[in-house]
Amino acid sequence: MSIGTRTADSVTILDLSGKITLGESSVELRNRIRELVKSGHKNILLNLGSVSHMDSSGIGELVSAYTSVTNNGGQLKLLNLTKKLHELLAITKLLTVFECYENESQALQAFRR
Amino acid sequence: MSLYAEVVKITVGSSLGHVDLLQALAENITRMMEFDENTAHQIGISIRESVINAVCHGNKLDESKKVNVEFEIYADRLVISVDDEGEGFNPATIPDPLALENLMKPSGRGIFFVKSFMDEVDFLPSPAGGTRLRMLKKRIYSP
After folding, report:
1. Is B38 on the interface with A (CB under 8 A)?
2. Which chain B residues touch A64 with a CB distance below 8 Å?
C-alpha cells in the first residue's frame, strides 16, 4: 500500500492505494493516522478510490482510525469508495457510521459544516 | 446436482504469508469456473478470512501446525474446506459484529464476511483433529 498526503483547506487528505489487509499495510495506515492525530491534525479525509483489496483487518483499521480521530475532537470522512469496499461497509452496517463522498469538493465542504 | 468434482488440495504452514497465495488461487479457480467478478471477489475474501482464522485462532500461529485447504470444483458449485489443527471451538460463541456494542470494534468481522458471501457455511470436526470450515457457493448457469 502507498499513502500520499496533501492538504486542502484545513483538511489532510490521505490518498491510499493498493491493499489494506492484514499485515504491514494495516499497520502503516494505523501509524500514519496516529502521527496525524498526535501532531494536531483534526480533519482527515481518506481517499480510497485506488484501494484494490480490503479485508476484515482493513475494515478494522478504518474503524480504529475513525475512533482515534473523533476521540481527539476531529472528523474523519471517506472519499471514493470502490464498489467492493462499499459492499463491505454496507453489510457491516458501517455505512451508518462513516460519512462517505464521491466528490472531493463536496467532502471538503462537509468539514466546514 | 453434479456429483463429479475436480479436487485441488493445498497444505500450508501456519503463516500469514500464505494468505495472499490462497486468496489468489481461490480467485483463479472462481474465474476458471466463470463466476462473475463480484462473486469471485466474495469467494476470495471468504477464503482469505477462513485461512486467517485457521492460522491465528485455530493453530494459534504455531508453525508446526498445518492448514489444509481443499477446493472441490463441481459443474454447479464450488465447495471449499479449510482445516486447522487447533483445539476446535464453538461457532455459537462468535460475537455478532452488527450488535450495537460490537459495531465499532476493530476486529471480529472475518467469519461474518464468510457467512455473508457464501451460500452454505458449516463448522465441522476436522479429521486432523481441529476444525473444518466448509463453505459452498452455487454456480448460477447463464445460458
Report:
1. yes
2. 106
